[in-house]
Every structure is written in structure tokens, then in C-alpha cells.
Amino acid sequence: MRIKTYIAPTVAEAMEQIRKDFGSDILIISNQHVKEGVRLTVGVEEEISENEIEEALFGPLEERTLLQIKEALEKHRVPDILIERILLACRDFSQEKDSTTVLSKGLDRIFKFNPLPEHTSKRAFMLVGSSGSGKTIAVAKLAVRAKIAGKRIGVITTDMKRAGAIEQLSAFTKILEVDLVKIRKAELLKEAIDGLRTFSDMIVIDSPGINPFVRSEVDYLIDLKGDIEGLEPILVMSAGLDAFEASDIAESFLALGCKRLLPTRLDLSRRFGSILYAAYTNSLGLCDAGTSPHVSQGLCPIEAVSLAQMLLSKE
């Protein structure tokens, strides 16, 4: 069936034009009020398919898919400039039937996905971030993951500022039967890392939380990191922040050489726009994510498909 749409001031005028063109052998598919009056969509002759009806009523499939993605991104409080960038990337794949596929392919064009190694790495990873971002729990989760994989994990803490920080991490490492190395001076960190490298498959370091807008505190972490070869800082950031605030926080940590972002507390947030914007504006690769307060549940690697599923989920 062939589909045709008529717009007229009234239904009677639209029907008059339809009868002139096709006679009375027609099927009225929809009758909608528009600014100009009414819009009648009719079908004639050939059999009409469900796709034709949907397109007549709701527009082309690709436009509906992009609209669904746009609404999801708006729900997550993604800034408009990034929404436009994502939609532009998704448009090349909008013929795909599944919106998750369209969004995942669009995200893969814009974002870098760089999960942390699950088993062995020659690098030592120092988790850095604002106070309360979830660094200590993330360190414990990485230690659990290594132990489950049968790997030897070295754990260092430099967090001597926060009350109970060492005790919290000590409790986890004791259960895992992993020695916790405590460092009180920046100049001793390299020595500790070199010592652990002789028998560890991976090394993770818990650093003190700082105020990223106080230069002296950022400088403290820069001095702590020093020029130790093979030491990579990983920015830890909790979800649910204001997007622009998150971007500013992430920018402060670029001075340390951070290239990856590890978001936490995704289970406590329903809006992930801040994480997307912080990663996008600072060219940070998304790695693993904390989706539970329980250490035993570990970290989840982030990739384009899983991120698209989270953004489009109604839960």
C-alpha cells in the first residue's frame, strides 16, 4: 500500500482532496491536529506494512532512535554540547534497529575505553582523587580481583591524613592475606615499589584524598608521584556530581599525568552525565567502575556497550 499525507484547514477539505486523487477506496491511518489544521495520513492500493504505519505516525526509524538517545542523555544531565557531539556520532549508525547498538557505536567514536589489567602489569597504579571519592575501597577491590585470579598483589598506602584510613585498608588486606606497606614520606615510595616489584604481579597504591582546588594539595600528590618509572595515577571520581564541577575537578588532576578515570558509586547515582563530561573534556579514558559498596563484588570494566546499556536503562 502507498502512503500519502494531506494537510488542510479542516477534515472535510482534506477528504475532498483525497477523494479527488483516489476516490473512496482508501484507508485512513491517522488523523492529527497540526498548526495548519489537520493532517490525514492515508494508504491506498498495496498492502501496508507495520514499518510504513510507524513511520507515518512517528517519523523515520532513525529519527526515533536518535530522539530516544537524546532523551536518555538529557535524563542523565549530560551538557548540551556533549549531547550534540554524541548524536552527531550516532547519526552514522542510526539505521541500526537497536538503540543500544547505535549509542554504543557513537560512544566508541568519542570516548576512550581503557580497562585496568585484571591479572598482571609491570606498572604500579596509584589511585588519586578528592576526599571521599572511594579510592580505598577501589584499592581493596583491585586486590580482591588479583587474589581471585591467583595473582600476587602488592598494596601500599600513603594515606596518613584521613582518620581510620590505614585501619580500613588493613582490615581488607589482612583478610586477603596481603601485606600492607605503609609509607609516611614521599621519598620512600620508590623504594617500596621497587621492593614489591620483585615478587608482585601488580601493585596498587592508595593516596590521601585532597581538595583539587587547593594548589598545595595537588602539589603534594605531584611530589608523592615524583618521577618514579612505571607509576600511573588513576583518577577516582564518584558519580552524581554536577557535570561542570566534575570537569573542573578532573582538570586539576591532569597535572599528575592522569589518563584514566575510574568512576565509583554508580549504584548510588541515577545520573552519569558528570562522568561522561569529565572524561570527554579532559580526554580521559574510562576504565573500571565501582557499582557496589561491597568489596567482594569488585569493579566492572567499562566499554561502549555496557555504558550504552546503563545510559538507556530505565532502572
CA gyration radius, whole angstroms: 27 Å
Largest sheet: 7 strands, parallel
| Helix-strand category | alpha/beta
DSSP strand tally: 12
Sequence stretches where pLDDT stays below 50 over 5 or more residues: none
Percent of residues in helices:
40-55%
Strand order of the biggest β-sheet: 6-5-7-4-8-9-10
Characterize the overall form.
elongated
Cα separation of the termini: 40 Å
Count the helices. How many?
12
Write down the overall mean pLDDT: 86
- Elements, N to C (H/E): EHEEHHHHEHEHEHEHEHEHEEEH
Portion in strands: 15-25%
Defining traits:
3-stranded antiparallel beta sheet; 43% helix; 7-stranded parallel beta sheet; alpha/beta; elongated
Walk me through the structure.
- The mean pLDDT is 86.
- The chain has a 7-stranded parallel sheet with strand order 6-5-7-4-8-9-10, with helices on both faces. A 3-stranded antiparallel sheet has the order 1-3-2, with helices on both faces. A two-stranded antiparallel sheet has the order 11-12.
- Strand 9, helix 11 and strand 10 form a beta-alpha-beta unit.
- It is an alpha/beta fold and 315 residues long.
- Helix 3 runs antiparallel to helix 4 and helix 10 crosses helix 11.
- The chain is elongated and about 90 Å long.
- The chain has 12 helices and 12 strands.
Which secondary structure elements does this structure contain, and how are they paired or packed?
Blueprint: E1 2-8, H1 11-22, E2 27-34, E3 37-44, H2 50-58, H3 61-75, H4 80-91, H5 99-110, E4 124-129, H6 135-148, E5 153-157, H7 165-176, E6 180-182, H8 189-197, E7 202-206, H9 215-225, E8 231-238, H10 243-253, E9 260-264, H11 273-281, E10 285-286, E11 288-290, E12 299-301, H12 304-312
Parallel strand pairs: 4-7, 4-8, 5-6, 5-7, 8-9, 9-10
Antiparallel strand pairs: 1-3, 2-3, 11-12
